[in-house]
Every structure is written in structure tokens, then in C-alpha cells.
Design brief:
399 residues, mainly alpha, two-stranded antiparallel sheet, 73% helix
């Protein structure tokens, strides 16, 4: 009897633990902290976190396959850009299965069109800014690049403009054009969701096996980045962390939860990147984009509009695609193709490349200490302004 009771108690503890990890969403602030830590680990292991570079690699590979590009890009299976983005998708997919949140979610025609337009805008903006919300803003700011500040401003402006469009759409286009809902299973029929956690375990084990396979083929660095990408995917999916909310919500609902998490995450990441660069463990110009000021600012505006219209940023579109959202799957495809084409066009002209801007490494002008202080000041102002707006609705846009 005691053995049965002990077994029952242990089973209850394990079920509650599983529910806490995979059935209940994690706090957004925790996601910010974990993303900041993982950003540092990824940079220390090999390179900074990015998403747009992987999507561009996939687009380059496709256009080379169909004969549009003569130059063969690096294989998606060994490109560090591609592997990080693949890991993000893989991690989000496995996490969605483990939390029973994966399902193919269709969308009405207008939402599909918005996915196409939004994904295309994001691809163009990322090509101009040297990255998406991750590479062009989050990792660029962490890398102490001035272009990260320019894109932050651009994202705020673009999110505001995108929100104005959405409000116009609500007033002028027919109602009922919202996103598709998940269809319910009929009573008595087999429910796939009962098996999703087991499938999620298999997907994660497959990831570990693939990473191990990379190490056996002398690609240990790539295998480690795959695991880092998977960690990003799990963290973002479990916390529902999306940068769109960090730039849209202050204007739409006034909610400051995600802006505060972004500020905290960046402070952690900036400290780690600064330490790695200052100590000489990583090159000072790594992820210092050639996008200040035009590329970062204007690219940020274009990207910000696109992410609000699509309903997901670069990382957000990928992890939601991993959950089965058809609209975001289409947005990711359009992102891949448009960012590849637009980046190729920019690179085809030295004048266009120069017009996007220059590389500006802030410590060259402000020292490491001065740079960290100024960036912290900007993020604290962002944190406090978003919190103040949450209480006052000062910047909230009314329909």
C-alpha cells in the first residue's frame, strides 16, 4: 500500500511539474532574461543570434536551384545563419507539440494577403537594415552597433504606421476577416493532441541526434548552434515572446509587459557582448552592420510596418509557423524570397551599398564604459516610458 501511495504521489509531482513547464505559459520577463543569457552563450560559442540571415540563405538556395542565381550559396545544412533559424523553427515545433499547442491553423483570404505583404515588407526591411528585429536590432544593439539604435527608432515608427493601417482596415473592410480559428475535434473521434507530447519528445531527441551527427562529421560548431537555436525556439514559444508586441502594444493597448522584457533582455545581452568584445574573445566589428543611418532607420520603418501587418516579426513569424499558423508560414516564405532578392540588388551596386550606411562601432567614439552607460540609459527610458504609458495611455492610438 505504501509503495502504491508513494508511486501515486510521485506521479502527481511529475504531472504537476510537466504542466508547469509545458502546459502553462512562462512569464514574459523570464523569457527576456533567458533570451539575454542564451544570446551571450550563442555569441561565445560561435556567433550572435540572428534570423534574417538564415531566411536569406534559404531564399538564395531556392533562387540558385531554379537558375536565377549563378553563384551557389553556402549549404543550408552547414550555414550558421541557416542552422540558427532552423533550430528556432525546430525548437518552436517541438515545444508546441510538448504543450499540445500544435495545429494547422488556416486563415481567411485577407489574412493570407496580409501575410504575403507583411512578409515581403519584412524581407525588404531586413535587407536594408542588415537584419530583422533580431539581427538588425537586438543583436546589433548588443554588439554595440549604432545601427541598432537607428533600427529601434525605425521599428517604433513602422509599428505606429502599421497599426494605423490595421485601424483603417477595421473601419473600411468587411468584418469577419480575422485569423482562422482552430477547428474542434468531433466527439468520439481520435484526438491527435493526446499523442503530441510523445511526438515532441521524439522531435527533441532527433535534434540531439542531429547535433551529435554534426560533431561526428567535424561540424561541432554547427551542431552546437543548432542546439542554441532550439533553445531560442523553446523559450520564445513557451513565453509567447514576440518583438511585435514590444513596438506595437504601447500604441495599441498600452501594455508594457513585452517592452519591459525586451529592455531587461537587452541589458543582459549588452553586458555579455561588451565583455566578450572588450576582452578580445570576439572581434569588435562582429555584427556591427553597415546600416547607419539610412539602412537601419528606413529599413526599420519598412520592417516595422511589415511585422504589424503580418502579425509576427522575424523570430515571431518563424515560431508561430512552428505552431502551425498558415498565415505566418506564408509570411516566412515571402520573407525568404524578398530579402534574398532585395539584398542581391543592394549588393549589385557599390553606390546602393554605400547609401545604406556605414559601420559605426560605438566604443570607438564613447569607450566601452560610455557606450554601455548610454545604451542602458536609452533602455531605461524605453522601460519607464512604456510603463508610464501603460498607466496613462498617453501614446495609445484610438480607432
Amino acid at each position: 500500500m505504501n509503495e502504491e501511495r508513494n508511486s501515486s504521489v510521485l506521479g502527481g509531482i511529475l504531472r504537476r511539474g510537466y504542466a508547469a513547464v509545458f502546459e502553462e505559459n512562462w512569464p514574459v520577463w523570464l523569457g527576456g532574461v533567458l533570451l539575454g543569457i542564451m544570446s551571450i552563450i550563442t555569441f561565445a560559442w560561435a556567433r550572435p543570434w540572428g534570423v534574417a540571415g538564415g531566411l536569406r540563405n534559404w531564399g538564395d538556395w531556392f533562387f540558385n536551384l531554379v537558375g536565377l542565381y549563378s553563384r551557389q550559396p553556402e549549404s543550408p545544412w552547414i550555414s550558421t545563419n541557416s542552422i540558427l533559424t532552423l533550430g528556432l523553427l525546430w525548437g518552436a515545433f517541438s515545444s508546441a507539440l510538448l504543450s499540445r499547442q500544435f495545429a494547422i491553423r488556416m486563415a481567411p483570404p485577407l489574412e493570407i494577403v496580409k501575410g504575403i505583404v507583411g512578409g515581403t515588407f519584412m524581407g525588404v526591411g531586413a535587407a536594408m537594415a542588415g537584419g530583422c528585429n533580431v539581427g538588425g536590432f537586438y543583436s546589433a544593439l548588443s554588439a554595440l552597433s549604432f545601427s541598432g539604435i537607428a533600427m529601434m527608432v525605425g521599428l517604433l515608427v513602422g509599428a505606429y504606421l502599421g497599426l494605423r493601417y490595421l485601424y483603417w482596415e477595421l473601419e473600411h473592410l468587411p468584418s469577419g476577416a480575422g485569423g482562422g480559428a482552430l477547428s474542434e475535434k468531433s466527439e468520439g473521434r481520435f484526438n491527435w493532441r493526446d499523442l503530441e507530447p510523445y511526438a515532441g519528445v521524439l522531435v527533441l531527441l532527433a535534434a540531439v541526434a542531429v547535433a551529435w551527427g554534426y560533431s561526428l562529421q567535424a561540424y561541432t560548431r554547427v551542431g552546437g548552434l543548432l542546439l542554441c537555436g532550439i533553445a531560442f525556439g523553446i523559450i520564445i514559444q513557451r513565453t509567447r515572446f514576440c518583438f511585435v508586441r514590444g513596438f506595437r502594444d504601447p500604441f495599441m493597448t498600452g501594455d508594457a509587459e513585452v517592452p519591459r522584457a525586451i529592455a531587461i533582455s537587452l541589458m543582459i545581452s549588452i553586458l555579455g557582448f561588451a565583455a566578450l568584445k572588450w576582452s578580445g574573445l570576439r572581434g569588435e566589428m562582429v555584427y556591427v552592420s553597415r546600416a547607419f543611418w539610412f539602412g537601419g532607420l528606413v529599413g526599420g520603418i519598412v520592417f516595422g510596418m511589415g511585422m504589424v501587418v503580418a502579425g509576427g516579426c522575424g523570430s515571431g513569424s518563424v515560431w508561430r509557423a512552428g505552431e502551425g499558423h498558415v498565415k505566418l508560414m506564408i509570411a516566412v516564405v515571402c520573407f525568404c524570397l524578398s530579402t534574398s532578392l532585395f539584398k542581391a540588388w543592394i549588393r549589385s551596386s557599390e553606390a546602393l551599398t554605400a547609401f545604406m550606411g556605414n559601420r559605426v562601432f560605438l566604443p570607438d567614439y564613447l569607450s566601452y564604459k560610455g557606450t554601455v552607460i548610454i545604451l542602458f540609459f536609452i533602455l531605461i527610458v524605453y522601460y519607464l516610458t512604456a510603463t508610464w504609458n501603460e498607466e496613462t495611455d498617453r501614446f495609445t492610438v484610438e480607432i
